[in-house]
Design a protein that fits this description.
Distance between the termini of chain B: 39 Å
Helix content of chain B: 10-25%
Radius of gyration of chain A: 20 Å
Chains: A mainly alpha, B alpha+beta, C alpha+beta, D alpha/beta
Strand order of the largest sheet of chain B: 1-2-3
Oligomer: heterotetramer
Largest sheet of chain A: 2 strands, antiparallel
CATH topology of chain A: Fumarate Reductase Cytochrome B subunit
Number of strands of chain B: 9
Shape of chain B: elongated
Shape of chain A: elongated
Strand content of chain A: under 5%
Largest sheet of chain B: 3 strands, antiparallel
Radius of gyration of chain B: 29 Å
Distance between the termini of chain A: 18 Å
Chain lengths: 230, 196, 265, 802
């Protein structure tokens, strides 16, 4: 297979395939950074144990302020990327997250073994494999719920008390879900020997070609066809 | 200015709050904290309430000659340490900013007060008492004779121009001196709000 | 220290509001601007500076007036919603049965205020602290009566050991029922049992109180299910990662490519 | 009070009428509840359902000012059904005394009415006297001449139905009240301004006296008639007689025609000689000798025809009589019933001197909103007063306990106790008069006035308690004072004698109560002679043994041949047993020595033959009289929605005093223009004229301002909701205030016609931290002829939503 295959993003790469363009990468890291700041400052309020740590950000009341400012970035920042500049792949990601093919289902079944270093057979995967779609869904719904409940908590007096009551558990639930998902995601992207290669996709945009073939074979093929069709 | 407030629950000694587990499960029962009593080491002086005629006993807690707390006198047989809403608020009067703390004078026709020393104030009043007593003195008066009914002159020795309103709010000794003072001056016009 | 109790026999309460004044005097709470709310009640709800006030409800039926007066303050529940809601662990229960906010730990987040079924704790925005009746814990811990009980002239408020005072309350309830058939004892079981219990002369609703007060369902779900399950889930994920690493290490996946058994496919 | 606060625990029934003690005397509820826990019943009769009514077993809403109507019905009920205590009535009241043949009551007037002078000549209200000038007594109550018969005849008109038509209380309820009160013994009556602030006040309280005498409740633990005095030392200030017509110890003040001490004694009885002489010795020391009538003529002689009671002072002030008013601890602009009268009166003074803690309305009347200060020429001196716990002194509570207090704090700023102000003022005035030879200045120069460089309150109390003038030592007890010959002792107020006898008894703090009756004999000192329950001799039977085994107050100890007991015996002489005339006296302060159902004109101890030097004879003790009748009679308030159903030709009290020097200042409103009845009262959160409490933020927080309480019917009629602003107007003024719609006021029927009562608490004014409209813009300044108390509790107003 010709190595010089131009990726759909038109970048020449020796043994690499462009997976995420600058827009996607920027959204991802914007989301990551704001998420962890929010997690840290949020736990400052939600968990007694974290109170002393808040002095790192200038005390608890400062933490609550930071939480609100960063929350706005977390929501508007990431949201804006869906409309700013070349946002096509953002929508692509969104659509893919909601379409589970057989391949995805099989990947999910195989995923458990993969996770612990075993090797399971699963059909060729698209740009986002089954596991990553699950992770995407958790993030999408998690972010939505945490944003809405956050708004209700922030402007509690303007909402019916009943609604405010439910905002706290939902906010907390969304936090747990997303944090749990993030733990898995970080492991896979940084530590898991097979999948840690994917991190470069989010850093430079390119993933090694053999990684692409192994984990996202279907995507790798399409990329080649799209390339030739262009 | 917000009164210094809520320096309550001054924690003394180590507060042994049991660190509730992060799991938010049923928390430990907090160890009782050592609470300081704000009245610790204060001097307790009894007094009597200044409102209705219950004569309830007050107990004033004084620290460094400042009144820090006021409650009912537990030894008083009538109120046994309890107080009504008015009496319970009496600490405020000790340092109320609205209290008049220096003599004041309003000149005739003026629309404001001016400060005046006690010396000048008492001097002015004493002179006025003498002036009005002398000018309004009625030594005698025509009255129908108790037997004949014909008008006869009787000695009455009255300072007609002075009225002295006493008060049900002042102590016995003050009420007594007020009566004695008005009778010696010669004014029977000594009344007070017991009648209204 | 044994569990204490304050019994408010509202049949003896004349609404003189001495308890409100004594509470403010002892705790040095400043007065606030008020307006008559209904009947002779001048305070509608609790505020950071008002921890105890008297409610007035006028019920007139079959040409008989029942003027219901009740000293409102924190009930000091045995199963307090505020404690459950407090994420800063600032609220704790004392052996003597009081629910106390530790002023230093409190961050003023207001979760206690939002979750108390009686709307008792209130957050002071300047100080970023929540405030409510402390039960005069400083007095009780020094073997004194709470200030409201000490000042009550009619004898409507009584303080003592919960066991024998509750027995006395039931006896008194029987007597009060003679004149007020709808009288109830409020606080024996509600919210797990309240340190401030009442003999009410009518149903709790007549006093604007819930007959069966409970912590909001949302709070229970949050603290008894979501929080523990979430923590376990997060712990589980972390554990899974550890095992993942071990798994991969055992399988030599971390070694140089050629020595790895597993293919890249 | 005949009894005391702590004695209320002994009662088995309370008639609380004319008092809202739960609000205005909260301590009363503590002891009432102790009695209630032992099964006592509480009856409350009030124009509104008050906080006290919330504690009542029986509540009746009454039209303000009509108490005598239903009380008369209770008296009739007692007489007709023989519910009276026969022994008590026969031995301890004047029931058997024969009334003068000239006495009669007809068509609303007693005999002796002088229409022009608007007063009664009272000769016809006497007894039939025997040759020894002692009243004749009948053998039985059936004798038509007896006081008892007069009572039956007088109150026969007061049926339950008639009372219902007048008061608005259903007849059945009045009967229920009567039965409940008569059956439970001992029963007590609690009253306050609700009973005194009428033009028929004295007679209303007389009805209480008659009820309690008939039922045999006076002089007993848990019984008596308890006037709940309103202020911390109103008992003391009346004991010290800050009253134009009396001297300390309730001695009548001398009048113009009392040329000599003897003239005074002819009028007031020889019993007054010792206390008056002792008083003159206290005031003029060595200068007062037998030869100069003990300086009797140094005292001012008031004019009997000029009623100079408190409200009338402002009336006279409006005439320009006064150039100088010294106003200590009183806020007249808010408390005198017709505010307009006070405003215009104060403006006519040269100088007003006020001593108070705060800048009360009276002190700044010259800058009241709507007043032009430039037009008011009065110079005002405002002196800062020390507060109760910033000065030594004693206060006498309603139970006659004289309680001492040491200063706990130093006076704030430059404020001074009134004691110091009065002391330094007097000494300055005396200084100004030094060297004067004008005889009118002798009293000032000769007065005894030395309480130390820094005036000591204890020295003043010791002067009040009394000295043996021969030895200069303090008089130990009242008995010693009574034994000592006139002129050899001095006492500033004879009823207080002994308070500093053996040390300062007012400061005693032993709170034991071995009797269990709440006497607390070793806590402070009660006048007279530490007797805690007055007339307690009446709690014993003919041979001196207590009639109530559970409440033993005093008894005759035959072995020791002396009266003894848990309380100090209220007897003339402890050694004179029940078989002696002195030992029989149950009401030793009355000339008859018994309770007076009929307030007859009588002086005891009149000599059989006129004295040889044909000077007028001097009796021992004249009876205390009510100027407007020997028996209570129902009269309508001056402003009433209806005519008098008993005697339409005499509607309100014929002797009512209407101060109206300034023409038109005391307008009287007609029911046509002002259809609703207004009553005024205090609230638990504020106190009197609010001079102090309206400057205490936490109290303003509890009761931020006045309101107008109205029934739901009236609210609907004027289209007002709870919280709306309404304008209430009377013939004298109007005010705007928040309206409070409540079921605690119900529409009621008076003589078949729907009637409404409106309630407004008084005590607000334009000054202080919590200003508000004053109810005395509306109230009418008409006075009870006997006591001078204004009719705050009832006047006519109209109301509209604003």
């Amino acid at each position: 297979m010709a190595v010089e295959r131009l990726n759909v993003e038109g970048q020449v790469a020796e043994g690499k395939v462009l997976r995420f363009n600058r827009g996607e990468r920027f959204s991802h890291w914007l989301h990551v950074v704001s998420f962890f700041i929010l997690l840290f400052t949020g736990l400052g309020v939600f968990a007694a144990g974290f109170h002393p740590l808040m002095s790192l950000v200038g005390g608890l009341q400062a933490a609550r302020l930071i939480h609100r400012v960063v929350a706005v970035i977390f929501v508007l920042g990431t949201g804006a990327m869906f409309f700013a500049g070349d946002s096509r792949w953002h929508w692509e990601w969104l659509r893919s997250a909601f379409r589970f093919s057989d391949a995805d289902k099989k990947h999910i079944k195989a995923f458990a073994a993969e996770f612990f270093g075993g090797h399971a057979v699963y059909p060729p995967q698209e740009k986002y494999n089954g596991g990553e779609k699950i992770n995407s869904l958790l993030t999408i719904f998690g972010s939505a719920v945490i944003t809405l409940s956050g708004l209700v908590m922030w402007f509690a007096p303007n909402f019916p008390a009943g609604l405010v009551d439910w905002a706290y558990p939902l906010h907390d639930l969304a936090m747990f879900v997303m944090t749990t998902a993030v733990i898995g995601h970080v492991y896979l992207s940084l530590i898991h020997p097979d999948s840690r290669a994917s991190i470069s996709g989010m850093l430079t945009g390119y993933v090694p070609e053999d990684f692409a073939k192994a984990h996202h074979a279907a995507w790798y093929e399409h990329a080649a066809e799209n390339e030739t069709a262009k | 200015m917000k009164v210094s407030r809520r320096n309550f629950l001054k924690l003394s000694g180590v507060s042994l709050t049991a660190l509730a587990t992060g799991l938010g499960l049923d928390p430990e029962i907090a160890q009782a904290k050592g609470y300081a009593l704000k009245t610790e080491g204060s001097q307790k002086l009894p007094s009597i309430c200044h409102f209705c005629s219950g004569g309830c006993g007050l107990l004033l807690y004084i620290k460094g000659d400042r009144l820090i707390h006021l409650a009912g006198d537990p030894d008083h047989p009538a109120n046994e340490g309890t107080l009504c809403p008015k009496a319970a608020s009496l600490r405020h009067v000790a340092y109320a900013q609205e209290r008049v703390t220096k003599p004041r004078r309003r000149a005739p026709g003026s629309d404001k007060w001016e400060e005046i020393s006690w010396e000048d104030a008492l001097d002015k009043v004493a002179r006025k008492i003498k002036e009005v007593r002398d000018s309004s003195w009625k030594g005698s008066e025509q009255l129908p004779d108790s037997k004949t009914g014909q008008p006869v002159s009787y000695a009455v020795n009255r300072a007609e121009g002075i009225a002295m309103l006493g008060s049900a709010e002042v102590d016995n000794e003050e009420s007594y001196l007020l009566k004695k003072f008005s009778q010696i001056l010669g004014t029977p016009y000594n009344e007070h709000q017991a009648r209204i | 220290m044994t569990r204490k109790m304050v019994l408010a026999d509202t049949s003896k309460c004349t609404g003189c509001k001495a308890c409100t004044v004594a509470c403010k005097e002892w705790n040095q709470l400043p007065a606030e601007k008020t307006q008559l709310v209904k009947s002779y009640q001048s305070m509608r709800t609790f505020t950071p500076d008002t921890w105890s006030f008297v409610t007035f409800d006028e019920n007139y039926s079959i040409s008989q007036m029942h003027w219901l007066m009740r000293k409102a303050q924190c009930f000091h529940c045995a199963d307090p919603a505020c404690l459950k809601a407090c994420t800063s662990k600032a609220i704790s229960k004392t052996e003597s049965g009081y629910v106390v906010i530790d002023k230093d730990l409190c961050i003023g987040c207001g979760y206690c205020a939002e979750n108390c079924p009686f709307g008792v704790p209130k957050v002071d925005d300047q100080q970023k602290k929540a405030f409510k009746c402390t039960g005069c814990i400083d007095r009780v811990e020094n073997n004194l009566k709470p200030m409201c009980v000490q000042t009550c002239q009619t004898g409507a408020l009584e303080f003592g050991e919960r066991d024998n005072l509750m027995v006395k309350a039931k006896k008194r309830l029987a007597e009060v029922k003679g004149k007020y058939p709808k009288a109830v004892l409020y606080g024996e079981k509600e919210m797990g049992g309240m340190t401030h219990s009442y003999i009410l002369l009518d149903s709790p609703e007549a006093y604007g109180l819930p007959s069966h007060p409970v912590a909001p369902l949302a709070l229970t779900l949050w603290k008894d299910i979501i929080r523990p399950v979430g923590t376990v889930a997060m712990g589980g994920a972390a554990a899974a990662v550890v095992f993942g690493i071990l798994g991969n290490a055992l399988r030599g996946n971390y070694g140089p490519p050629e020595s790895g058994k597993g293919g890249k496919e | 009070m005949t009894n005391s606060w702590t004695d209320l625990q002994n009662s088995r029934c309370f008639l609380i009428a004319g008092s809202n003690c739960a609000e205005n005397h909260p301590i009363a509820m503590r002891w009432i509840n102790r009695a209630r826990d032992k099964g006592a019943k509480i009856i409350v009769v009030d124009p509104r359902f008050t906080r006290t009514a919330s504690q009542a077993d029986i509540f009746a809403q009454i039209r303000p000012g009509t108490d005598i109507a239903y009380l008369g019905a209770i008296i009739r009920h007692i007489l007709v059904n023989k519910l009276y205590d026969k022994d008590y009535v026969l031995n301890y009241t004047n029931a058997l005394y024969k009334v003068s043949k000239d006495y009669k009551f007809d068509a609303g007037l007693f005999s002796g009415f002088d229409a022009k002078g608007k007063k009664y000549s009272i000769d016809s209200w006497g007894y039939q006297l025997g040759p020894d000038n002692k009243p004749l007594k009948a053998d039985s109550l059936e004798d038509p001449d007896t006081v008892f018969a007069k009572l039956q005849e007088h109150f026969s008109r007061y049926t339950f139905d008639k009372a219902e038509k007048i008061t608005g209380i259903p007849a059945a309820k009045i009967k229920e009240i009567a039965d409940t009160f008569c059956q439970a013994k001992p029963a007590t009556i609690l009253y306050a301004l609700g009973m005194t602030q009428h033009t028929t006040a004295v007679q209303g309280i007389r009805s209480y006296a008659i009820i309690q005498l008939l039922l045999g409740n006076v002089g007993k633990a848990g019984g008596g008639i308890n006037a709940l005095r309103g202020e911390p030392n109103v008992q003391g200030s009346t004991d010290m007689a800050n009253l134009f017509n009396s001297l300390p110890g309730y001695l009548p003040a001398p009048i113009g025609t009392d040329k000599t001490l003897r003239d005074y004694l002819v009028r007031n009885g020889s019993i007054q000689e010792k206390p008056l002489v002792a008083l003159l010795k206290a005031w003029f020391g060595q200068s007062a000798t037998k030869e100069n009538d003990y300086c009797f003529n140094y005292l001012p002689k008031y004019n009997l025809s000029i009623n100079a009671s408190m409200v009338r002072i402002f009336d006279l002030m409006n005439k320009g009589q006064f150039k100088l008013l010294i106003n200590i601890g009183s806020n007249s602009l808010v408390s005198i019933p017709n505010r307009q009268m006070v405003r215009s009166g104060l403006a006519k003074l040269d100088m007003l001197v006020v001593s108070d803690l705060f800048e009360i309305e009276t002190a700044q009347f010259w800058r009241e909103p709507g007043v032009n200060p430039a037009e008011i020429k009065t110079e005002v001196i405002l002196l800062p007063a020390a507060f109760v716990y910033e000065k030594d002194g004693s206060l006498t509570n309603s139970g006659r306990w004289i309680q001492w207090k040491d200063a706990a704090l130093k006076p704030l700023g430059e404020s001074k106790p009134d004691l110091e102000v009065l002391d330094s003022l007097f000494r300055r005035v005396r200084q100004l008069y030094q060297g004067s030879t004008d005889p009118k200045d002798e009293p000032v120069l000769k007065a005894r006035w030395d309480y130390g460089q820094e005036p000591s309150a204890l020295k003043v109390l010791q002067e009040i308690s009394g000295y043996d003038e021969t030895t200069g030592k303090l008089l130990p007890t009242l008995a010693d004072y009574l034994k000592a010959p006139a002129g050899s002792v001095s006492t500033g107020c004879w009823i207080y004698t002994g308070v500093t006898g053996n040390g300062n008894l007012a400061a005693k703090r032993k709170n034991g109560d071995p009797s269990g009756l709440g006497l607390f004999k070793d806590w402070s000192f009660a006048w007279p002679a530490n007797i805690r329950i007055l007339y307690n001799r009446a709690s014993c039977d003919a041979n001196g043994q207590p009639v109530d085994p559970e409440r033993k107050l005093v008894w005759w100890d035959p072995a020791a041949r002396v009266w003894s007991g848990n309380d100090g015996p209220d007897v003339v002489d402890k050694t004179k047993g029940p078989e002696t005339p002195e030992g029989k006296l149950s009401f030793r302060m009355n000339p008859e020595g018994v309770g007076r159902l009929f307030a007859a004109k009588y002086t005891s101890g009149m000599p059989a033959a006129p004295p040889v030097d044909n000077l007028p004879a001097i009796g021992l003790r004249p009876a205390g009289l009510c100027v407007d009748g020997p028996l209570p009679e129902f009269y309508e308030p001056v402003e009433s929605p209806t005519g008098n159903l008993l005697h339409s030709e005499v509607s309100s009290n014929p002797l009512v005093v209407i101060p109206a020097t300034v023409p038109g200042i005391q307008k009287v409103g007609k029911p046509g223009d002002f259809p609703y009845v207004l009553t005024t009262y205090g609230v638990v959160e504020q106190f009197c004229a609010g001079g102090v409490t309206r400057n205490i933020p936490v109290l303003n927080e509890l009761m931020p301002g006045p309101f107008a309480e109205i029934s739901k019917n009236l609210a609907q009629k004027i289209g007002a909701q709870d919280g709306d602003t309404v304008e209430v107007a009377s013939a004298r003024g109007k005010l705007r205030v928040r309206c409070l719609v409540t079921d605690r006021l119900q529409t009621y029927k008076v003589n078949g016609k729907d009637t409404e009562t409106i309630g407004i608490p008084w005590g607000w004014g334009f000054a202080s931290l919590s200003p508000g409209p004053g109810a005395n813009e509306l109230t009418i300044g008409v006075l009870d002829p006997g006591a001078g108390t204004p009719e705050y509790k009832a006047c006519l107003v109209n109301i509209r939503r604003v």
